[in-house]
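for the writeup, i need someone to sanity check this before i put it in the appendix. the sequnce is what the collaborator sent (i think, or maybe the updated version? ugh). structure was predicted straight from it, no edits. if anything looks off just tell me and ill rerun, i have time this weekend
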Amino acid sequence: QFSRRLFFFKPTIAFGSKEAVDEFKSFEASLPADEALPETFRELHTEYGALKQSGAKHKATRKNFSRVLGREALEAYVPEIAMRTEEFVNKLKQRKVPLFLGKDIKRFALKTLFYLFLGKVPEDSIIEEMYLYNAGLLSLGKFDPTFKKGESALEKLTQYVLEYYLEIKKDEAKLNAPEHFFLKQYSEATDEFGDTFSDERVAVTVVLMVWGSYIEAAALMGHSIRILGDKENADVLKKAKEEARALREEEEQTLSTLAQKGKYLLAVSKETLRFHPQTAGGLRVNPTDRTFCGYDIPAGYVLTADPRIAFLDESAFSDPKAFNPSRFLEASKSEDRFFPGGMGQHQCPGINLATTMNVIFLTKFLTTFSSWTPSEGMPEEVPLVQVPIVIIADEYSVDLMQ
């Protein structure tokens, strides 16, 4: 249940047993988070990034997340997600070319998240800047050209969002328009001192939120399609299609409709996150020598509750190597062991948004295409990009059959 490895060139103890996870929860909040991250990530994530924060500042940041990622926000987002997903799937149907499970879905997710959080889809040049920013976060050092491009991309993205936000703020009617739900909420956001966020902080927050959300949602959608396409999961695919057809017949998709009639598709989403975890869990630096679960952990080591260990624990997930969404339909002890977005003070706040997007995507996709298979020349083992999110590589594609 323990594994010693290197994360970002730092000695790391990864663990996943119930005993280790429970003990970790008891002191996790006291551990510094940002020191476990690469210098390039810390720099480009900015002072406003929640992953760098702690204490009252972090608490205030998380409180503002609830305004744009809670139930009310999801209710506001669902109609737009449904419309944009319909358009995306219809284009796939019309163009009759392979679907790139990484590249195509990333672009769709990025455009969708930009609209949800900004109120408009930027031109392609700005979309490309987000890709450069993502690459820069995990570059090898500040003198790496990739970091320099990421730094420049952050400036351009922030300026683009700031100019748009300032224009929208001039007109109260525009700020209160449905497409500007996110901007409206953050125009009223306050920090740990009760001061309203500066315009620049709002702009940076939009950039960081789009970045954190789009790649997570895209990874989940791509992995779901790949896994459902495996022959051994034919029964799961059949059940998913049946529910998707019933959902598709609804005149309007709302959060309540998805919750009531999309339970199996939500279970597919959760099982995808369990079966193929997208992250290694939150990374925390151990600042002092510590005894942890009977082991002596030196100061400076990184500790991480790793879902790739925990999600294979048979005491929580029976037959863990089988893809079985039904496990999430039953009230069981597995839910408290399920932490796809990490745990503790820095757990990902956007998991519910990602699963909601995936349920809508599966509803449209599974009622449009009968099957899909790897395109000619694709490797037997699906290529993956491992950081910052485990996502299918851009070059991998499948052929779609209607």
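Residues 199-228 form the longest helix (30 residues). The chain is about 50% helix and 10% strand.
thx in advance!!
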